[in-house]
Amino acid sequence: MAATKHILRYLKETTGYGLLFPVSLNEFEDCLEAWSDSDWCGDKVGRKRTYEYFFKYLKAPISWCSKKQTVVALSSCEAEYIAAAETTCQCVWLEYVLDDLKLDHVKSMQLCVDNQSAINLAKNPISHGRSKHIETKL
User: Fold this and answer.
1) Cβ atoms < 10 Å from Cβ of 71
2) Are the C-beta atoms of residues 90 and 99 closer than 8 Å to each other?
3) Which domains does the chain show, CATH number per domain?
4) Closest listed residue to residue 36, CA positions, set 93, 92, 87
5) pTM recorded for the entire structure
6) In this model, does residue 138 exceed pLDDT 60?
7) How much of the chain exceeds pLDDT 70, in percent?
8) Could you tell me the CA-to-CA distances from 94 to 18, 80, 97 in Å, in that order?
9) Three-state SS for 96?
């Protein structure tokens, strides 16, 4: 009950706040930006890693998430690759939402990943024979 009161007090005091969506002056600014990341062995008991993603549209934050991966990754490259795949799925869904809201936007996405091995794996998955097991996990 105390947590509910705390939330209601917070909402009452922040009714004047909101998200600012500036007008796009450039078609390159009018894209959906996404960041994804995965931790390094955060859960030592279950061995599942936590991944996060964050989205901006017109330079304003619109969505974020942090949750445990559903599978056990064998390496940091695999964990980052899975996080990027989950982020891409969310991005496709957000583009459908923007279409449903009749927002005029350029269909482009910028996905930022901080692991060079995962980026190389995403660019050329055919040359990586040791990554076939990832497809069956997703």
Assistant:
1) 17
2) no
3) 20-137 (3.30.420)
4) 87
5) 0.68
6) no
7) 73
8) 20, 21, 5
9) helix
The 60-68 sheet, strands edge to edge: 60-68, 50-57, 32-38, 109-113
Mean pLDDT of 60-77: 80
Q: Is the pLDDT of residue 9 over 70?
A: yes
**Hey, what amino acid is at 1?**
M
Record the tokens describing residue 72, joined without a space: 């056990």
Residue in 97, 30, 108 with CA at minimum distance from that of residue 63: 97
- CA atoms of 122 and 106, how far apart (whole Å): 23
Cα–Cα nearest to 84, from 118, 123, 39 = 118
**In terms of pLDDT, which residue wins out, 108 or 129?**
108
Per DSSP, the residues of 102-136 read T------EEEEE--HHHHHHHH-GGG-GGGHHHHH
